[in-house]
Amino acid sequence: MMKIDEILSTLTLEEKVSLLFGKGMWDIAGVRDIPEVTMVDGPHGVRKPLDMDKTGVFEGNNPATAFPILGALASTWNVDLAYEVGEALADECHYYDVHVLLAPGVNIKRTPLGGRNFEYFSEDPILTGEIASAYISGLQENGVGTSLKHYAANNSEFERMTISSEVDERTLREIYLRAFEIAIKKANPWLVMTSYNKINGYRSEENPFLMKEMLRNEWSYDGVTVSDWGAVTDRAKALETSLDIEMPGPSLSKQKQLVQQIRNHEIDEALVDASVKRILEFVQKASEGKKKAKDRCDFEQNHLVAKQVAVEGTVLLKNDRNVLPIKKEKTKSLLVIGRHAIDPRISGKGGSAMVTPYKLDIPLDKMKEIAGNDITIHYVDGYDDFNSEQNEMKQQEAIALAKQVDNVIVFAGIPEELEEAEGFDKEVTDLPQSQINLILSVVKEQPNTTVVLSNGSPVTMNEWVDEVPALVEGWFAGQAAGSAIADILFGFANPSGKLSETFPERISHNPAHLTYPGENGKVHYHEGVFVGYRYYDKKEIQPLFPFGHGLSYTEFTYDSIHVNKEAIQDDETVEVTVTVRNSGAMAGMEVIQLYVHDQESSVIRPLKELKKFKKVHLNPGEAKQITFTLSKQDFAFYDVLSQGWQVETGSFDLFIGRSVADIRLTKTIHITATEEKKPVFTRKSLTKEWLADKNGKKIITDFFDQLSDELNMEDEYTLSFLKECPISAVISLFGQKWMETNDAEAKVDQLIAQVNQLNEETSKGGC
Ligand code: BGC
Question: Which of 27, 201, 472, 473 has the most CB atoms less than 10 A away?
Answer without folding.
Answer: 473
